[in-house]
Amino acid sequence: MSNKTFRGGVHPEGYKEISKTQPVEVFLPKGDMVYPLNQHIGKPAKPVVKKGDKVLAGQLIAEADGFVSANIVSSCSGTVKAIEERYVASGAKAMSIVIENDGEFTLAPGIGEERDPEGLSNEEILDAIQMAGIVGMGGAGFPARVKLAPKDPDSIEYIIANGSECEPYITCDDQLMQKEAHAIVGAIKLLMQLFPNAVGVVAIEDNKPDAIATMQGVCNNEKGISVLPVKAKYPEGGERSLIGVVTGRQLRFGQLPAELGCVVCNVSTLNAIYRAACKNEPLMERLFTVSGDAVANPRTMSVKIGTSCAELLEAAGGIKSGCEAVKVLSGGPMMGIAMPSLDVPVCKNNNAMTVMSKDEVALAEKKMTACIRCGRCGHVCPLGLVPQMMAEAAERGDYERYEKKLYGLDCIACGTCTYICPAKRPLMQLFKQTKAAIMAAKRR
Amino acid sequence: MLSFMPIIIATASVAVIGLLIGLLLIVVGNKFKVEVDERVAAVRECLPGNNCGGCGFAGCDALAEAIAAGKAPVNACPVGGAPVGEKVGRIMGVSAEEKERLIAFVRCSGDCETVIRKSNYVGIKDCASAVGSGLNPWGCDHGCLGLGTCASVCPFGAIKVDKGVAHVDRDKCMACGKCVAACPKHLIELVPESAQYAVQCASRDRGPAVKKVCSAGCIGCKLCTKQCEFEAITVENNIAHIDYSKCTGCGKCAEKCPAKIIRSKAERM
Q: Which of A116, A166, B19, B181 has its CA 20 to 30 A from that of B267?
């Protein structure tokens, strides 16, 4: 029998092998480090350092401002050069702390102290997560402290470690599971302490046999933690799809995973949680894939948060000779957003950078025709939305219908409809824009 | 034998009922008569009928009613301008105040030749979409995106995008203000027709940053403020602005402007 999966979805070419073969190396940046204050969902953090201050690696430089917010920790030692607006990957400018890196990476006192995971109380675990400034590292950037404090911890029945990594080109979670399997399982055990009635499930797409084998090897001795290979299909890693696959429960629109007794965490987040709780190590680095058909030496590296993307591209061998880079994406080709410049920092929730030698969107735009109402978009939508009707309502400006009748605000912008559309219509782009317009009107 | 009586009775009774109802309607109609201001129809006749909404009312009918009710000035229609104001004034029996015609003005002149391009923009050809996506193909964060949202909302076809920047046709513009509301960069303002000089830049960046990306940008050097004898020009947030009520149109500021972005009427075309 084939592995479990969800309804809908598409099968884009994976291109994972090109960055998977290289071993993971630690990359130490030389240039200035930039820490945007809004690397998470919620209120931007408040800086606690000022220009000219000396900081050490692991030192708190900005603290959470309010409940839904997260701390930011310096990942290098050096001097605070400025607190100013800098470009981030989305092309917008964001208030950022800029640190002149001294290249020493001197750790602040106390970082790296081993702690016994058995002896930690629930409060200690949550405090460690809060202090470390951990956010959802799969992409959303939701503060982990908030996610792990649902109203009723006893109602949580599933802790789902999301290692499906369905986005093409990206291999950082795959490599992380092979490298840090013990840490990931350790973190699941910590979460099982927070949620006493829960079982742990590590969901991995079946195109990563090495990661499945490694995780299975570690999980075999653990009670209540299992590995679930799931079918390789995009977007298997979407929270809604994955909950359906693992538990058989379908999240209704507007429902949160906790209401169905689920907590879904990316494996990178779990790794960070383990290191924060058991090694007293705040979120300073993450695995990051630099890949794409225009990169000379595609690879996954362990990078310090705040490193400039330009340095990372250089570390990956730069642009392939005889190749012209046309488009740089923050993330993968399905959900990634085009970067206007390489001079932007890696944030906590950025997992990859993809450099392409041709711009598929621009090519598709030339071939765009009117909608032929074939209904394929509705067929592949993992949420069961009807993109064709949503696009019609959005183009007409009928936001009422878009929101209330077609549930357009629940679109996760996975791009599946746009991928499959034979008329090459920019559906996902339109939905993203419409969603932003509706949200802006609501705030007003 | 056939009897015609039932038919005659039925016809007669219907006729009598009809007559009674008719009389009743006349009486009621007189009693509950609604006074219609015939000036509304007359004023409506004078208005251009574009229903552009530039006056702030929901179309020409609504404006005609507001004028007749005295809730709007007789020259409230920005499209019709002075001639329509005068006509409406005659109907209403008041003289229209002299109101100057306004013209939309794009506070940016950065085109393909003057501004550097950072990246290509691929996607929905709409300025609001581009701003929403966070991508800006131009080096300058404040300037015109050139995707033509203003041109698409203009009911008079007065705006066209040339070489990546919007231009307003001074003759066609009726100052309805739709483009002003549509521009996500807030670059368009309504300027009096007689205004001789205007600053064609909106960059709030500092001088060196502007120079790096655009050769037609205000660098906030304040040379113009020193030239002006009438205190009509001020520099705030690194951008010069002319107070059109004080400006006499001497042109000294434009002469001195190192970036040549203070432009005369003719140059603004």
A: B181
* CATH number of the structural domain spanning residue B69: 1.10.15.40
Which CA distances in Å does B42 have to A385, B53, B54, B73, B89?
52, 19, 20, 15, 11
Judge if B168 and B232 occupy the same domain.
yes
Q: Which residues pair with A97 in a beta bridge?
A: A35, A83
CB contact under 8 A, B124 and A433: yes
Give residue A59's pLDDT band: very low, low, confident or very high (50, 70, 90): very high
Rounded Cα distance, A160 and A202, in Å = 6
- Mean pLDDT of chain A, nearest integer: 90
* Confidence class for position A54, pLDDT limits 50, 70, 90: very high
d(CA A212, CA A229): 7
In a domain, residue B183? The reply is yes
Verify whether the Cβ–Cβ distance B141 to A93 is below 8 Å.
yes
> B141 CB near a chain A CB, below 8 Å?
yes
Q: State the average pLDDT over residues B19-27.
A: 96
Nearest CA in chain A to B205: A85
Q: Nearest by CB to A433, which of B120, B122, B132?
A: B132
Total structural domains in chain B? 2
Same domain, B149 and B188: yes
Q: Is the pLDDT of residue B59 over 90?
A: no
Verify cis geometry, omega within 30 degrees of 0, for the bond prior to A235.
yes
Q: Write out the residues of chain A at the interface with chain B, using a CB-CB cutoff of 8 A.
A: 90-93, 337-338, 340-341, 359, 361-362, 365, 426, 429-430, 432-433, 436-437
Task: Give the gap in angstroms from C-alpha B181 to the nearest C-alpha of chain A.
Answer: 15
Residue A255 has pLDDT above 90, yes or no: no
My answer on whether B166 and B246 are in the same domain is yes
Average pLDDT over residues A190-204: 93
Cα nearest neighbour of B127 on chain A: A433
- Cβ contacts (< 8 Å) between A433 and chain B: which residues? 124, 128-129, 132-133
Domains, chain A: 113-279 (3.40.50.11540), 363-443 (no CATH)
Asked if B119 reaches chain A (Cβ–Cβ under 8 Å), the answer is: yes
Examine the domain organization and report whether B82 and B147 are in the same domain.
Answer: no
Answer whether B128 touches A (CB < 8 Å): yes
Q: What domain range includes position B190?
A: 102-268
Rounded to two decimals, what is the model's pTM? 0.81
Residue B96 predicted with pLDDT over 80:
no
Q: Does B117 touch chain A (CB under 8 A)?
A: no
- Among chain B residues, CA nearest to A341: B118
Beta carbons of A408 and A393 less than 8 angstroms apart? yes
CA distance, residue B118 to nearest chain A CA (Å): 7
Q: Using CB atoms, pick whichever of A91, A359, A365 lies closest to residue B136.
A: A91
Q: Closest chain A residue to B132 measured between Cα atoms?
A: A433
C-alpha separations of A227 from A176, A205, A212, A270, B90 in Å? 15, 11, 7, 15, 86
Q: Which of B128, B129, B135 sits opposite A340 (nearest CB)?
A: B135
- In 3D space, the residue among A113, A114, A98, A99 whose CA is nearest the CA of residue A56 turns out to be A99
Q: How many residues does chain B have?
A: 269
Distance, first Cα to last Cα, chain A:
52
Residue type, B6: P
* Max avg pLDDT among A368-372, B18-22, B110-114, B209-213: B18-22
